[in-house]
Write a structure and sequence with these properties.
This protein is about 80% helix and about 0% strand. The protein is mainly α. It has a single domain (about 10-300), classed as Tetracycline Repressor, domain 2, CATH 1.10.357.140.
Length: about 300
C-alpha cells in the first residue's frame, strides 16, 4: 500500500465511519420528529439541501469528536491499543489534531448554513465532545452523562431544521439518547479487560426504559403498530450481545455488546422516525444499517 493510501486509511480509521452513519441517522430522526419530513415539498431541493447540510454537519462533528478522542488517549492506546493510527505511527498526533479541528469547523459551518439555531447547537455538540474527551471520560457518572449529552444534542440538531418551535415542544426527547448512550458508555469502560455484571444489568434496565418511552410516544402519535417491528428489532440487536456479556463479562463479550449498542442506534432512530412520521421514513433510516454494518467490519467502532 502506498504512503498516501496508508495515510488516508489512517485518517478514516480515526473518524470511525460506521459510527458517523449512526450520527446521520440521529439527524434524520430529528427531522422526522420536527415534522419537516412530512411537509409537501419532501425530496425537492428545498427539502433536501438543509437535510444534507445537517448530515454533513453531524459527520464533521462526530468525526472530529472521535479523532480528538484518540488524540487525548494516545498515551493509553500505546499500551492497550498499539494498532491504532496514532500509536502505530500511521498518523502523527499533530496531523490528528489538525484533522479534528477541520472536521469540527466543517460541522459547525455546515449547521450555520441551515439556520442560526442549528449552528449554535452544533457548537454545543463540539464543546461537549471536547469536554468528554479531555475530562468527562475519566468520571464514572459524569462521563456517561457527558457522552449521552453529545447524542442528545445531535438529535436536537436534526430537530432544529424546523426552527425553534419544534425544539420547544420536543426538546425533552433528547434525554432519551442521553440515557441510552450513557448506558453504552458505562459498560464500554470494561471492554478491554472485562468487568462485573452490575453495570451490564443497569444497562439492561436503562435500555428497557428507552424502549418503553419509544412505545409510549408511538402510542400517543397513533403509530404503535407501525413502530413495533422497529422496536422489536432494536431489542433483539441490543439485548442479544448484552445477555451474552452478562453470562460471561469478558472484554470481548462486552466489546461486542458496546458495538451492538452503537450500531443499533440506527434502528432506534428508525423507530423514532416511524413514531412521528410513518413507516416510510423509518425504512429509509433503516437502510443505513447495512451501510454501517459493512463499514463496521472494515473499521473499528469503539
Amino acid at each position: 500500500m502506498s504512503y498516501i493510501a496508508n495515510k488516508l486509511l489512517g485518517y478514516l480509521r480515526l473518524m470511525r465511519p460506521a459510527n458517523i452513519v449512526t450520527a446521520v441517522a440521529d439527524i434524520l430522526a430529528g427531522v422526522a420528529i420536527s415534522g419537516f419530513w412530512l411537509q409537501t415539498h419532501t425530496f425537492t431541493a428545498d427539502w433536501l439541501l438543509p437535510v444534507l447540510c445537517l448530515a454533513l454537519a453531524t459527520a464533521g462533528l462526530y468525526g472530529g469528536g472521535v479523532v480528538f478522542n484518540d488524540v487525548f488517549d494516545a498515551k493509553l492506546d500505546s499500551v492497550e491499543r498499539p494498532e491504532r493510527p496514532i500509536p502505530s505511527g500511521i498518523v502523527s498526533k499533530t496531523q490528528a489534531v489538525i484533522l479534528g479541528i477541520y472536521l469540527l469547523m466543517i460541522g459547525v459551518l455546515a449547521a450555520f448554513t441551515v439556520n442560526p439555531v442549528a449552528g449554535f447547537i452544533a457548537m454545543a455538540v463540539a464543546l461537549a465532545a471536547l469536554v468528554y474527551n479531555k475530562w468527562g471520560k475519566h468520571y464514572n457518572i459524569a462521563g456517561p452523562v457527558n457522552m449521552g449529552v453529545c447524542r442528545g444534542l445531535n438529535l436536537l440538531l436534526g430537530m432544529s431544521i424546523a426552527g425553534e418551535g419544534t425544539l420547544s415542544n420536543y426538546a425533552w426527547l433528547a434525554l432519551v439518547p442521553v440515557l441510552y448512550i450513557g448506558a453504552i458508555t458505562m459498560i464500554s469502560r470494561d471492554e478491554v479487560h472485562g468487568g462485573k455484571t452490575g453495570p451490564l444489568k443497569l444497562a439492561a434496565l436503562m435500555y428497557g426504559i428507552v424502549n418503553a418511552i419509544i412505545l409510549l410516544i408511538a402510542w400517543a402519535q397513533h403509530r404503535l403498530l407501525e413502530t413495533l417491528p422497529f422496536v422489536a428489532f432494536f431489542i433483539f440487536l441490543i439485548y442479544t450481545p448484552l445477555l451474552k456479556a452478562m453470562k460471561q463479562p469478558t472484554g470481548p463479550n462486552i466489546g461486542k455488546s458496546v458495538k451492538g449498542g452503537i450500531i443499533a442506534l440506527i434502528v432506534m432512530n428508525a423507530a423514532w422516525a416511524t413514531a412521528f412520521a410513518g413507516f416510510i421514513p423509518g425504512l429509509i433510516i433503516l437502510a443505513l444499517l447495512p451501510v454501517s454494518l459493512a463499514l463496521g467490519k472494515a473499521f473499528a467502532v469503539t
